[in-house]
Design a protein that fits this description.
Belongs to the DnaX/STICHEL family. The protein is of the alpha/beta class. The protein has 29 helices and nine strands. Among the domains are: 173 residues, 3-Layer(aba) Sandwich (Rossmann fold); 144 residues, Zinc Finger, Delta Prime, domain 3, CATH 1.20.272.10; 110 residues, GMP Synthetase, Chain A, domain 3. The strands form two sheets. The protein has a five-stranded parallel beta sheet with strand order 2-3-4-1-5, covered by helices on one side.
C-alpha cells in the first residue's frame, strides 16, 4: 500500500516546516538558549503543522544533544520520534476528541508523576484540546500550574477560545496560520519533481485553491490526482472534473457576457453548469472569486507580480482586459450581489432559480436603487464622456447647410444627361439660373409628367457674408408653392402636410445666380436641411445615397426613423459585400473567446484599426451579421468605414473562417431628445447605411472655393467643443431623470 503524501513528506525538523516561520524561529531560539517552558499551546487551522511541530518539539527536547533546535536524527530518541518511527514511551499523544472526559484526564494526571523511562522529559501532547470538558480541565489545572521538572504539556487546538482560561494563561501560546499560496506552490513543485510526476502548470492553482491554505488538505488533493493520472500525467481537464471547480473558460465566458450585457450567454452558461451536474453554489463561489480578482486588478494592475492573485500569465492578461471592460464599480456591485445571494442560497430548495435571479440582477443595474447601482451607471457615463473627449478632430470641415429652394411649376421636356463628377458644380449653377428665370415648360407632355426632384449635391464651404442667414430659431415660415407644384403631378395621390420650416418663395426667386447655394433641381423640396449629429463630421452627401442625376422623387422617411436614439449602418457598400459563409456552429461566445486573436490579425495590417477595435464589444451574432457596440456614435461610424470594416472581416475570416457583415451601434443615445421633437418627420439621414462620399477625381481649379482654408463660421451644425460640466448635466437629465435646481 502506497504511503500518503502528507505522511511521507511530514516535516522532521523545524527547518522543514513551511509557512510558519513566525512560530518556528522563536521556538528554535528558545531551545538554543535552553529556555524551555512547562506548557505550550499551539493553535491554528487544520493541517497547518500544529501536531507535527509538537512532535518536533518533543524530539528536540529528548535528543541526546538537546535541548537543541536541530535534532541529530541518529540517537534512539530521534529515531523513535521520527515521522514514521515506532514512538517513545516517554512521549504520550492523546486525542481529546475521544478522550476528553474527566476520567481520561485523571488517568493522565496519575501517569504524569512517573519519571521518564529513557528520555530527558516526559511529554504529553493533547490534540484537539478544545474538546476537553470543563471537569477535565479542572482535573489538569493543578498539575499544569505546578508540574514536575521532567514534565512538559503541549496542547494543540483549532479553537483556542474554548480552552479553559486558567489553562491558557499558564501556557506559551503560538498561533499557527494558513500557508500562503506562493509557498504552497513552491512546495508542490518540489514534491512533484521528487515524485517524478507530470502535472500541468494550470493544475497547481486549482489544487492550492481546493486546499484552502492547509498543507495537509493540499497534499491530499495532489495525492488523489496523481493516483488517477494516466501516462500523460495530471491534465487540467481531469483536475477540473475531479475537484469539482468551475472551468476558467466558463468563467471567462460569463464575465465577458456580463460586460457585454448579453443575458442569453449568461443564462446559457448557467444551464450548462446545471446540466453538467455541478453545484450552483460552487459556481457562484468561483464567480465571486473571479470578480474579487477583477476588483484587485482594477486597483493594482500588477497584482499578479505582487502575489495578490495566483493565476497563470495568460489568464492574468485576459483578466486584465476583463477588468478594463467591467470597471471597478461594476465588478464591485456584481460581487456584492453574488455575496448576498450566496447567503440566500444556503437554505433554498431551488439553488438554480436563485442563481438565475442573481444573474438577472447583475445584468440590470437600473433596477436597483443602491449606491452600487448608481456608481455603475455613472461609471458607464463617465467612460463614454472620456472617450468622446479624446476623439480626434474630423478631417472634413463642418459646413453650413444650404437653404432649400422651391421647385419650378414645370420641368423641361427634354431629359438632361447626368453630369460627370467634375462637371456637377457648373451644371448646378446653370440649373439655378434657369430656375430663377422661371423658364416655361417645353413639349406637349410637360404638364402630365411628374415633377422630378433631385437630392442635394455635396455642400461647399461658404463665406459668412455670402450667407447672411441667422441661426435656426424654429419659427414657422409662410406657406410655399409646393401645393401648386403637387397639383401639376398626376401621381401625387398621397396628401402631404406642409412643413413650417420651408423656405420662403421670395427668397428662392431672389437668389443671385452666382450664389454658392444648392441648385433648385438638386434640393429636396419642402424639407429643411437636417441638423448634423454632434458626433458626426459635417459633410454634404446625396440624400439616401442617390446620384445627382437620378429622377426619383425624394420621399421623407417615417417619423420613427428620425427619433431613433441609436443609428446603425452596415459596414461596406454593395460593391464590397459578399455572401456570408455558412457557419451555424459558431456562436457569439466563440467570437468573444477568439476576439484577441482577431485583433492580432488586424494589428498585423493596420495598427490604428486594432486600437479602435479595442473599445468594441461583441454583442450578438444573427444571420451572418456580427453586431458590435462602441462607446460613442462617432467611433461606431469609424468602425463601419470600409477601410476598417474590411480589415475586421479579413481578420474574422483568417481566425474563424467566416465572412460576416459588420454592424456597429453606439452604446447609448446618439441624439438629444429635444432635437428629435423639433423634427418629428425629418427625412432619412444620408449617413444611415451609406458610405462617405468620395471627392471628385480631378476637378478644375475654379471649383475650389476661395475660403477653403478659412476656419468654418460657428453654425448650429458645426461640432464646437462642449463644456464637460454641460455634458454631464445633460447625461444626468436625460438618463437619470434629474432636474436642475433653480437658483
Amino acid at each position: 500500500m502506497a504511503l500518503a503524501l502528507y505522511r511521507k513528506y511530514r516535516p522532521a525538523t523545524f527547518a522543514e516546516v513551511v509557512g510558519q516561520e513566525h512560530v518556528t524561529q522563536p521556538l528554535r531560539t528558545a531551545l538554543a538558549a535552553g529556555r524551555v517552558n512547562h506548557a505550550y499551546l499551539f493553535s491554528g487551522p487544520r493541517g497547518c503543522g500544529k501536531t507535527s511541530s509538537a512532535r518536533i518539539l518533543a524530539r528536540s527536547l529528548n535528543c541526546v544533544h538537546g535541548p537543541t533546535p536541530d535534532p541529530c536524527g541518529e540517537c534512539p530518541s530521534c529515531i523513535a520520534l521520527a515521522p514514521e518511527g515506532p514512538g517513545s514511551l516517554d512521549v504520550v499523544e492523546l486525542d481529546a476528541a475521544s478522550h476528553g472526559g474527566v476520567d481520561d484526564t485523571r488517568d493522565l494526571r496519575d501517569r504524569a508523576f512517573y519519571m521518564p523511562a529513557e528520555s530527558r522529559y516526559r511529554v504529553f501532547i493533547i490534540d484537539e484540546a478544545h474538546m476537553v470538558t470543563t471537569q477535565g480541565f479542572n482535573a489538569l489545572l493543578k498539575i499544569v500550574e505546578e508540574p514536575p521538572e521532567h514534565l512538559v504539556f503541549i496542547f494543540a487546538t483549532t479553537e483556542p477560545d474554548k480552552v479553559l482560561t486558567t489553562i491558557r494563561s499558564r501556557t506559551h501560546h503560538y498561533p499557527f496560520r494558513l500557508i500562503a499560496p506562493s509557498v504552497l506552490r513552491t512546495m508542490l513543485e518540489r514534491l512533484c519533481e521528487q515524485e517524478g510526476a507530470v502535472v500541468e502548470p494550470a493544475v497547481l492553482p486549482l489544487v492550492i485553491r481546493a486546499g484552502g491554505g492547509s498543507a495537509r488538505d493540499t497534499l491530499s488533493m495532489l495525492d488523489q490526482l496523481l493516483a488517477g493520472a494516466g501516462p500523460e500525467g495530471v491534465t487540467y481537464r481531469s483536475a477540473v472534473a475531479l475537484l469539482g471547480v468551475t472551468d476558467a473558460a466558463l468563467l471567462d465566458e460569463v464575465v465577458d457576457a456580463l460586460a457585454a450585457g448579453d443575458g442569453g450567454s449568461v443564462f446559457a452558461a448557467v444551464d450548462r453548469v446545471i446540466e453538467a451536474g455541478h453545484d450552483p453554489r460552487r459556481f457562484a463561489t468561483d464567480l465571486l472569486q473571479r470578480l474579487r480578482d477583477l476588483v484587485i486588478l482594477s486597483a493594482v494592475p500588477d497584482a499578479g507580480a505582487k502575489g495578490l492573485i495566483d493565476a497563470p500569465s495568460d489568464q492574468l492578461e485576459s483578466m486584465s482586459a476583463q477588468a478594463d471592460r467591467l470597471g471597478a464599480a461594476t465588478a464591485t456591485r456584481m460581487a456584492e450581489v453574488l455575496h448576498t445571494g450566496l447567503v440566500d442560497m444556503r437554505g433554498t430548495t431551488s439553488p438554480r432559480l436563485v442563481l438565475e435571479l442573481l444573474c438577472a440582477r447583475m445584468l440590470l443595474p437600473a433596477t436597483a436603487d443602491g449606491d452600487g447601482a448608481l456608481l455603475q451607471r455613472l461609471e458607464r457615463m463617465e467612460r463614454r464622456m472620456e472617450i468622446a473627449a479624446d476623439e480626434p478632430e474630423p478631417t472634413a470641415r463642418p459646413v453650413r447647410q444650404p437653404t432649400a429652394v422651391e421647385i419650378p411649376l414645370a420641368e423641361p421636356a427634354g431629359p438632361e444627361p447626368a453630369a460627370e463628377p467634375e462637371q456637377r458644380t457648373g451644371t448646378a449653377e446653370r440649373a439655378a439660373e434657369r430656375t430663377a428665370a422661371g423658364r416655361p415648360a417645353q413639349g406637349p407632355n410637360a404638364q402630365q409628367r411628374p415633377a422630378a426632384s433631385r437630392p442635394a449635391a455635396p455642400a461647399r464651404p461658404q463665406r459668412p457674408e455670402a450667407t447672411p442667414a441667422g441661426p435656426d430659431l424654429g419659427l414657422p415660415a409662410p406657406p410655399t408653392l409646393r401645393s401648386t407644384a403637387r397639383a401639376a403631378r398626376p401621381d401625387a395621390s398621397r396628401p402631404e402636410q406642409p412643413r413650417p420650416d420651408q423656405a420662403r418663395p421670395d427668397q428662392a426667386r431672389t437668389t443671385p445666380p452666382d450664389s454658392r447655394r444648392t441648385p433648385p433641381d438638386q434640393a429636396r423640396p419642402a424639407a429643411r436641411a437636417p441638423e448634423p449629429d454632434r458626433n458626426r463630421p459635417a459633410a454634404g452627401s446625396p440624400a439616401g445615397g442617390q446620384p445627382p442625376g437620378s429622377d426619383r422623387v425624394a420621399r421623407p422617411a417615417p417619423a420613427a426613423a428620425s427619433s431613433a436614439p441609436t443609428r446603425s449602418a452596415e459596414s461596406a457598400p454593395a460593391a464590397h459585400e459578399s455572401s456570408p459563409t455558412p457557419a451555424s456552429e459558431i456562436e457569439v461566445v466563440d467570437v468573444r473567446r477568439n476576439w484577441p486573436e482577431v485583433l492580432a490579425k488586424v494589428q498585423q495590417r493596420r495598427r490604428t484599426t486594432q486600437i479602435l477595435l479595442e473599445s468594441a464589444t461583441v454583442v450578438a451574432l444573427e444571420n451572418g451579421v456580427l453586431r458590435l457596440t462602441m462607446p460613442s456614435a462617432a467611433l461606431a461610424r469609424r468602425v463601419l468605414e470600409p477601410a476598417n470594416a474590411d480589415l475586421l472581416r479579413a481578420g474574422l475570416k483568417q481566425v474563424l473562417g467566416v465572412d460576416w457583415r459588420i454592424q456597429c451601434d453606439a452604446d447609448g443615445p446618439a441624439a438629444r431628445p429635444a432635437a428629435a421633437e423639433r423634427r418629428p418627420a425629418a427625412a432619412a439621414d444620408p449617413w444611415d447605411g451609406a458610405p462617405l462620399p468620395e471627392p471628385p477625381a480631378d476637378g478644375p481649379d475654379e471649383e475650389i472655393p476661395d475660403d477653403y482654408g478659412d476656419p468654418a463660421p460657428p453654425t448650429s451644425g458645426s461640432q464646437a467643443p462642449r463644456d464637460p460640466e454641460a455634458m454631464a448635466l445633460e447625461l444626468l437629465t436625460t438618463q437619470l431623470g434629474a432636474r436642475p435646481l433653480e437658483p
